[in-house]
Design goal:
- By secondary structure, this protein is α+β, with helices and mostly antiparallel strands.
- About 55% of the residues lie in helices and about 15% in strands.
- The chain contains 26 helices and 25 strands.
- Strand 17 and strand 18 form a beta hairpin.
């Protein structure tokens, strides 16, 4: 039977290719995801390992906690005097200190900050004695001295800087001008959108506000001295806020933040690959079901010649296995190109991370081949079982149909039960209380998958009424071809439903994303309209990252300014949790309108150095009331005791404030280099072009500071949300493409199936154009069925999830215009899917078609 299966497969190359495309695209997504993220990891590995080249151990400050996002906050500095003590140790061959920052902004010739695409903007120092530890390599010029700077090669070539040019750089305080003394690179790795700049150590210490301090001391042991012995000699010199690690341990510590993001990116992309494979399984199962129905006489002949049911089943499974293996191999290598496309998509939305040489790991090959093959084989089981029910008598009887399964009478009850169970699981997962997060997510994910199955199984029951409604325009516009197209769509409801279900899954997820994104935007806009009463806001150029506190201070006392109130941003540990911390000035009410429930409107002015305020929900969750004490612990280990002085009602869309907000006086006492989330500005005569120009002139020395009105603030804040949504649409488009292949498969195979019928229609006068119209209308009706089912499911899921997240400020909002676009997109999918089948149907030779069996 293996030979029979392989010969049958070779005789139907086009059908096999159409079936394989669905698996090729899904496997390509898996392969591309692994290649992209492994390549990024390799880039970070190279950067971090080279950062400690020639060093055996590294001494750094030790932060006492991670911030609210799980990343280590800026560690405290170490006194420069420690370097001398380390150098005097008997087993130390070489030791050198350095200072660094990840907020060093390089400014282009146009006066704007050079964008990094989400990658860090690094600055660090070099010393003559520390050159053996320097991870970069000069490609031109020389190392810096005094008011000189070395910039990275990508920035130099991209922005047109050369050795001897002047460039401005800003870390803390106003931007300063430096002479470019050299251009450097990280050998063997692309830094992506990251920028880096190198200064001599005294200059860097002043620029980074770390005079007399160091961020790290790299130490090289004398020959024959082990790393553990060297660590043992150094440890007694350190304070509790300092730590010594081996170079490898320090590189791993530095990489934690990057690894966390790349792991999240990998899982997210694999989830989209899973969606594509899930849709592909529908397509494969439907395609095989159609081909099996069309090969009844072939299977019946095999049965007549003595083949058992088991042998027929294995013949179909072997075909699917071969298709799965070949499709997986093609998808595996297609993933190499897809990885570059994915990276280009991330760069387009502002995520441009370092990368090493392309990594094509063994794990990528094994997982891609296994998953693609297994999904194909599993999808083939049900069609294969149907093939075993072909009776031998069908070999001599034209027009035979497959006999129904003995379980067919339970089909309706089973489909409704699965749908009901899916809805129950989704509702419990989204709305259930008192259930741990893990089980809830498991129920929600399982319920969504089951929901797709349930809708698909019940879809056949609504095919005829949907076809009557959705096919009405085709009937009115297309005449006889439109009527035939509508009737063809209802000829085999189960087949049409299965074809539409593949598109339903993709459009359900697209609809969910659109509604969820609209909810985010609506809730944010409502919150800004409620809170933002200032005329202007000064933020960073990307609106999200904090800015140097001196930018806002530079506007105090300006001629056109009546109020300046800053909102600081940082992290602290309180109430047994590592959380964000914000700080405000006494005149906060000049920029933010807050609904105070307890404490009164003068709370910001009364915070002093011992008070904080919080939201109603946070106070309720932690049993806080006016006067309740908490202890704040900062990154350097210092602590401050504060008491609750105000409780306010935070709007649903959130606010710029953390769970705990203190005064800037207290914040600045414990944070060495304070930064502002935003600075709110009022002018005596409101927003005007003249005032905007004056404010922009006031912060011109702070290139990363951006002056915005309230409407501009909303628009700029929503840009990353919109970019992320567009990325999600692009990733989900792969599942739509797979479903497009499914519609093409169905139409191509039904054209084979209806060859004699098409010949008769042509014989009685139907033109080639009318044949093409009929196939096209049928395709559009099928696609619209998938769109309707998908949007209904998407709206249902979005309603549940947004209701579950209502306490987080997410509202349910339907983007009607986008839904119209999705309907138009479904029509285009139908038109595109019909191109090949319609052309083939129109080109059939009438006489040959009438003789076709």
């Amino acid at each position: 039977m293996i030979a029979v299966a392989l010969k049958g497969l070779a005789g139907r190359k086009v059908r096999a290719l159409l079936t394989a495309i669905a698996i090729i695209l899904g496997v390509a997504m898996i392969s591309g995801t692994y290649v992209l993220t492994d390549t990024m990891n390799a880039g970070f590995d190279t950067i971090f390992s080279r950062s400690y080249q020639n060093a055996d151990v590294v001494i750094t400050g030790k932060a006492v906690f991670d911030n609210a996002n799980g990343n280590t906050v800026e560690a405290p500095t170490i006194p420069e005097s420690l370097l001398g003590e380390v150098q005097n140790l008997p087993d130390v061959a070489l030791a050198a200190g350095s200072v660094t920052t990840d907020t060093l902004k390089l400014i282009g010739k146009d006066g704007k900050v050079i964008a990094t695409g989400g990658a860090p903007s690094l600055g660090f120092s070099v010393t003559p004695s520390g050159q053996p530890f320097n991870p970069t390599k000069l490609t031109a010029g020389e190392w810096p001295k005094g008011r000189e700077i070395v910039i990275d090669k990508a920035t130099a070539s991209g922005e047109g800087f050369a050795v001897g040019d002047q460039i401005r750089a800003q870390a803390f305080g106003p931007a300063r001008t430096f002479r470019v003394s050299g251009i450097a690179e990280f050998p063997g790795v692309s830094v992506g959108g990251a920028t880096f700049a190198i200064f001599d150590q005294p200059t860097a210490q002043v620029l980074f506000r770390k005079a007399g301090q160091l961020d790290a001391i790299r130490v090289q042991a004398k020959s024959g001295v082990s790393t553990s012995d060297l660590v043992g000699q150094i440890r007694p010199l350190l304070s509790p806020r300092q730590i010594v690690r081996s170079a490898d341990e320090q590189a791993a510590q530095d990489k934690k933040q990057a690894s966390g993001f790349i792991s999240f990116l990998q899982y997210a992309l694999l989830a989209f690959a899973g969606v594509s494979l899930f849709v592909g399984a529908f397509v494969i199962a439907n395609t095989l079901s159609i081909t099996i129905a069309q090969r009844m006489r072939e299977f019946a002949t095999l049965r007549t010649l003595g083949a058992s049911r088991r042998q027929v089943l294995w013949a179909v499974v072997i075909e699917a296995f071969v298709i799965g293996v070949l499709g997986s191999v093609l998808g595996l290598f297609l993933g190499l190109g897809l990885a570059k496309l994915l990276n280009a998509m991330f760069v387009a939305i502002g995520i441009d991370l370092p990368q090493g040489s392309t990594v094509f790991a063994t794990r990528t090959i094994v997982v891609s081949l296994l998953v693609g093959t297994i999904v194909t084989v599993i999808a083939s089981v049900r069609p294969a079982r149907r093939a075993t029910r072909v009776p031998p008598i069908a070999a001599v009887r034209e027009g035979s149909v497959l006999p129904p399964s003995r379980f067919a009478k339970y089909g309706t009850a089973t489909a409704l039960t699965i749908l009901a169970a899916a809805i129950a699981l989704v509702c419990i997962g989204a709305l259930g209380s008192g259930i741990a997060t893990g089980p809830r997510l498991l129920m929600l994910g399982g319920g969504v998958l089951l929901l797709f199955f349930g809708v698909s199984m019940n879809a056949a029951k609504v095919v005829r009424p949907l076809a009557a409604i959705l096919g009405a325009p085709a009937k009115s516009i297309g005449g006889a071809p439109g009527i035939l197209a509508r009737d063809n769509a209802t000829r085999n409801p189960a087949r049409t439903a299965s074809t539409a279900s593949a598109l339903m899954i993709g459009l359900a997820l697209v609809t969910f994303v659109a509604i969820f994104g609209q909810g985010l935007r609506s809730s944010f806009e409502d919150a800004v309209n409620t809170l933002f009463v200032a005329d202007y806001a000064v933020t960073s150029t990307n609106t999200f990252t904090p800015i140097e506190a001196e930018a806002g201070q530079a506007l105090v006392g300006a001629a056109c300014v009546s109020d300046v109130t800053a909102i600081r941003a940082g992290s602290a540990r309180y109430l047994n949790s590592n959380s964000d911390l914000t700080a405000v000035q006494p005149n906060l009410e000049a920029g933010v309108a807050m609904d105070w429930l307890q404490g009164g409107e003068d709370v910001p002015a009364r915070l002093g150095r011992d008070g904080f305020f919080t939201s109603k929900d946070y106070a309720k969750d932690h049993d806080l009331s006016i006067g309740s004490p908490i202890t704040l612990q900062f990154a350097d280990g210092k602590k401050a005791d504060v008491r609750l002085k105000g409780i306010w009602d935070e709007p649903n869309g959130g606010s710029p404030f953390a769970d705990v907000t203190v005064s800037t006086a207290l914040f600045d006492k414990y944070v060495a280099r304070p930064r502002d989330e935003m600075v709110l500005i009022n002018t005596p005569d409101g927003v005007s072009d003249a005032n905007t120009a004056t404010l922009e002139d006031g912060v011109r020395n702070f290139a990363d500071a951006k002056v915005q009105t309230r409407d501009e603030f909303k628009k700029n804040f929503e840009k990353p949300i919109n970019s992320l949504l567009n990325l999600l649409y692009a990733l989900l488009a792969l599942s739509v493409i797979v479903s497009l292949v499914g519609i093409i498969n169905t139409l191509v195979l039904t054209v084979f199936e209806r060859t004699r019928e098409l010949g008769m229609l042509r014989a009685v006068g139907m033109t080639r154009r009318q044949v093409r119209m009929m196939i096209r209308y049928e395709s559009i009706v099928t696609a619209l069925m998938g769109a309707v089912l998908g949007m209904v499911v998407g709206v249902f899921l979005a309603a549940l999830v947004t209701h579950a997240l209502s306490s987080e400020g997410i509202v349910f909002a339907v983007p009607w215009i986008q839904l119209v676009y999705f309907v138009i997109a479904a029509i285009l999918v139908g038109v595109l899917a019909a191109v090949i089948p319609a052309r083939r149907a129109a080109r059939l030779n009438v006489l040959q078609a009438l003789q076709y069996e």
